[in-house]
Design brief:
By secondary structure, the chain is α+β, with helices and mostly antiparallel strands. It has 4 domains: 118 residues, no CATH class; 163 residues, no CATH class; 86 residues, no CATH class; 142 residues. Helices cover 41% and strands 17% of the residues. The protein contains 25 helices and 20 strands. The strands form 6 sheets. The chain has a 7-stranded antiparallel β-sheet. The chain has a 4-stranded parallel β-sheet with strand order 3-4-5-6. It has a 3-stranded mixed β-sheet with strand order 18-19-20. A hairpin with a 6-residue loop joins strand 18 and strand 19. Helix 13 packs antiparallel against helix 15 and helix 20 crosses helix 22. The longest helix is centred in the first third of the chain and has 21 residues. The radius of gyration is 24 Å and the shape is globular. It starts with a helix and ends with a helix.
């Protein structure tokens, strides 16, 4: 694999102009935004959608459009996808359903969303992904040109598939350590076992890349559980979890006696394998770090904490919006080439933008452009994209963390906090998923958490909090799928979590102090509960992929899935 280093260095040098163009767009944020807005408006000029909002066949003005969500746009998108080109885009745009790709993802109403990806939006997002990759490799040249292990869906109907397989440059994809067919293996657990079998003998993996940190956590658990099986497979040319011929991946039967000997020596000494045992050249891990997934990334620290982590940025089916430029943080700079951004200050909205259409006009008047974001303030994110989404409410809450280069007028740097609907409320405490994730992260940190809690939390594959309104006082229940179900230890975690939530939420603290809210209780989940939830999500969301599933850290209610999976409630 050493031959790749000079070739890779040449490729990185050749792509320097792309990185410079990205930085220039960040410097000229306002001007770039104006160009994107004009392009988005040009695309819908003369469309039935624009005419329905009172726009003549001349250039539409953004002020003619209210804040909307997917359900408002669904009729227009479905008509366009069904072949009515003029439903969403104008006759002069040249955009037709045949020229578009469509990304399918789960929707808020239970019906899947179908997001158009026009040629312009595809090009802008591909450029943004390449800016992310070039920025990461500029910072980590020692990782850039070893093999990359991506864990993603290759389906073209998912944003994960587009981002990993269609939007990446061919030169980057030559670094992928596994064949495309391996990413198509189902179920998800079998796919992870196959990816391990394909790479456990490859010491030249330099980068792990996936969206969800829990995927890597599952990969680490599989490696720990099946180390002896994998070494035997390397020696014999077998695959402990299936038939390579039936799975369509011939490489699963490849022998590697030298790798088997090396890893067998480690197993004999330690009794287990870790990622650094099998991938000693690992230099970079790419995954989401923020929002409600922070707890799961923290759980990876014992095995991958010494390797730099790079967040993917704020990425959704609707587009790729931020590019993190540093390690270990979900903070990313808004890419002004992808969408036109507007923001509604959280304190200005009595409710989430999508929750009350009666105050739509006042909320629209309160929208501010990206250049006016104030560091430390939180906002609802509203985007106008090159894919036909006009003043589209992402239902995302972000926080401004500064500006590119530290100068006003350049691109804002933002952090995704949570989805605007991720709240639970028993008696006025308005607990957010972000607060729960933050509390669990703190407890899982040996330096910040209560002594002993971090060790107990590390035994958990999955934790989630749900309200229990039965009895008095009502309270929250922490459900844990753990390899160590020692009640006294987990009760200590529940007490510590209760204290942390009180520290993060003054209303929660007030309700606890008044006795209107009881202490957090503990309940154990049956083994395989997380995988059961993942399967349930995929069954109910046609077109969704395993990578799109985000483990809930907070439930609005004690739903039947949790009751069914719990040993006790």
């Amino acid at each position: 694999m050493l031959y790749r280093r000079p070739i890779g260095s040449l490729l990185l040098a050749l792509k320097k102009p792309q990185l410079r163009a990205f930085h220039q767009a960040l410097e000229d944020f306002d001007a770039t935004q104006a160009v994107v807005l004009s392009q988005a408006m040009n695309q819908i000029r003369g469309s039935q959608f624009a005419l329905a909002h009172g726009c003549a066949r001349t250039q539409p003005k953004l002020d003619a459009f209210p804040i909307c969500d997917y359900e408002d746009l669904r009729p227009w998108i479905e008509r366009f996808a069904g072949g009515d080109a003029g439903a969403l885009f104008g006759p002069d745009s040249g955009i037709t359903p045949r020229r578009c790709r469509f990304v399918s993802t789960s929707g808020t109403t239970g019906l899947p969303k179908l997001i158009p990806v026009t040629p312009a939006s595809f090009a802008a997002q591909a450029a943004s992904w390449q800016a992310w990759g070039l920025s990461a490799f500029e910072a980590h040249r020692d990782a850039a040109f070893w093999d990359v292990l991506p864990i993603s869906s290759p389906a073209q109907g998912s944003m994960s598939g587009l981002a990993t397989w269609a939007m990446q440059s061919p030169s980057f994809k030559t670094l992928y350590a596994v064949p495309d067919q391996a990413q198509k293996i189902t179920p998800f657990e079998l796919k992870l076992k196959a990816l391990l079998r394909l790479t456990v003998g490859n010491p030249n993996i330099g980068m792990l890349m996936t969206a969800n940190p829990s995927t890597l956590l599952m990969l680490v658990h599989q490696l720990d559980a099946h180390g002896f099986d994998l070494v035997r497979d390397l020696r014999q040319g077998s695959f402990f979890a299936g038939d390579p011929a039936q799975l369509g991946v011939a490489a699963l039967g490849r022998r590697d006696a030298a790798a088997a000997k090396r890893l067998d020596r480690i197993l004999t000494q330690r009794g287990r394998l870790t990622p650094m045992d099998v991938w000693p050249r690992l230099k970079l891990v790419a995954m989401w770090l923020g929002g409600t997934l922070s707890h799961y990334s923290e759980a990876l620290r014992p095995t991958l904490g010494h390797v730099p982590w790079r967040d993917h940025g704020l990425v959704a089916s609707e587009g790729r919006f931020t590019v993190p430029l540093g390690d270990g943080s979900p903070d990313g700079v808004l890419d002004p080439r992808v969408a036109y951004y507007e923001f509604l200050p959280v304190e200005s909205a009595n409710r989430d933008p999508g929750d009350n259409r009666s105050n739509e006009g006042s909320q629209t008047r309160q929208l501010i452009p990206g250049k006016d974001l104030i560091p430390g303030q939180s906002y609802h994110l509203v985007v106008t994209t090159l894919g036909g989404l006009i003043r589209y409410d992402m239902h995302d809450i972000i926080e401004c963390r500064g500006h590119f280069g530290g100068r006003l007028g350049t691109a804002p740097i933002v952090r995704f906090l949570r989805k605007s609907s991720q709240f639970a409320n028993i008696t006025g405490e308005k607990l957010s998923a972000f607060q729960v994730a933050e509390a669990l992260t703190q407890l899982g940190n040996a330096r910040d958490g209560r002594p002993g809690c971090d060790d107990t939390i590390k035994t958990s594959h999955f934790m989630t909090l749900a309200p229990n309104r039965d009895g008095y006082p009502p309270h929250y229940v922490l459900y844990a799928e753990s390899t160590r179900q020692v009640r006294s230890e987990w009760e200590s975690v529940a007490r510590a979590l209760d204290e942390r939530l009180s520290g993060l939420n003054c209303e929660y603290q007030d309700k606890r102090a008044s006795g209107r809210l009881g202490a957090v209780q503990i309940a154990f989940l049956r083994p395989g509960s997380l995988e059961q939830l993942r399967t349930r999500h995929l069954d109910r969301a046609p077109g969704a992929t395993a990578e799109q599933f985000k483990q809930p850290v907070l439930w609005n209610d004690l739903t039947s899935p949790l009751r069914d999976m719990a040993f006790e409630v």
